Amino acid sequence: GEKPFQCEFEGCDRRFANSSDRKKHMHVHTSDKPYLCKMCDKSYTHPSSLRKHMKVPGPGRREGGPPVPGAPSGRRAAGP
């Protein structure tokens, strides 16, 4: 399909079908990581990266799912 929206970062040739996708892409070129995990101190440039992170077992997260309400910090939550 047509991709009329080019990345405005010098040296980047990426093009996008719409301006919102271009805006999301711009986080790649900055240190801006607006998508924060509520269970740890990690942050991500894209919401899909945060969703992938949340599927990995860790403190306060059940395997393959969202955070476990009331799970103690620093301990792995029991699976479903």
From TrEMBL:
GO terms for biological process: positive regulation of transcription by RNA polymerase II. Signal peptide: none annotated. GO terms for cellular component: nucleus. Residues 5-34, 35-63 form the C2H2-type domain. Keywords: Metal-binding, Repeat, Zinc, Zinc-finger. The keyword Zinc applies. One of its GO terms (molecular function) is DNA-binding transcription factor activity, RNA polymerase II-specific. The gene is Zic1_1. This is ZIC1 protein. SUPFAM superfamilies: beta-beta-alpha zinc fingers. InterPro entries: GLI_C2H2-zinc-finger (IPR050329), Znf_C2H2_sf (IPR036236), Znf_C2H2_type (IPR013087). Residues 46-80 are annotated as: Disordered. It comes from Centropus unirufus.
